[in-house]
């Protein structure tokens, strides 16, 4: 029952069309699945990733039309990391982000790794992290047909930062329940008079298995909206292991969703004490289960349990052209 790293991160957008443009044309990720929110089939759930959407590379978005702007604060997933091959690639991204009018920072070093922070068009907080000195969880493979050269492309998800008011309870869940290990690679907070940010890792560790924990006593609770993050998922090997996690959480009397079949993977959801939603998700079956690898994301894909409702779903959902020439 050892978690293997970060599986995916799911965030909110108010505009699926603009979201698709930004993450495919600017960031150069591949749309590997265009489907619907399984809890509200009238809106999209978009999955971006590497060449086939391997676990550990998936950045997903629920479309919530008319969603208010996200108001940052505690009890939040406050930064999403995207891995790149080395330090030199960060220089490439400085220029590319500037060319596309994207707000960014300068390159900074945190806990021995170099980062380039930026925001998408809705204020989503992201950062490129260099794998130059990285060891641990393997990265993915950028899509060869991306507008970004393969050598400069995002290779997967990097560290995810959690911002909380009371870190002790979150630390207990990460270490005592989920099996994360606290490292000695802390780094200074960006805010005055706040503790250093702590670094935890799971699986083989490194950028693909890290959670950074930020304590902030100076912020209100986050009011989630467009540009906010809904949840982070961690990798479980298979559904048999996931059932064991259900048993473990139940034995600890931790409220949870129980086993959930998302078709492309199987899931388990629960909230840690500061209110952040965690998911445990299996590595398979994968996104090429119901589509050819060459045409992933080009059509509206529905899990078999929604296929009988396709006509009604397509009648309610607004068109989103994702056909690639």
UniProtKB/TrEMBL annotation:
Metal-binding recorded as keyword: no
Keywords for the protein's UniProt record, in alphabetical order: Dioxygenase, Oxidoreductase
Name by which UniProt lists this protein: Ring-cleaving dioxygenase
Region entry Disordered, spans: 132-157
InterPro entries the record matches: Extradiol_RC_dioxygenase, Glyas_Bleomycin-R_OHBP_Dase, Glyas_Fos-R_dOase_dom, VOC_core
Family matches, as Gene3D superfamilies: 2,3-Dihydroxybiphenyl 1,2-Dioxygenase, domain 1
CDD domains to which the protein is assigned, alphabetical: PcpA_C_like
GO molecular function: dioxygenase activity
Keyword Oxidoreductase: yes
All residue ranges annotated as the VOC domain in the record: 5-131, 156-283
Any Pfam family matching the protein: Glyoxalase
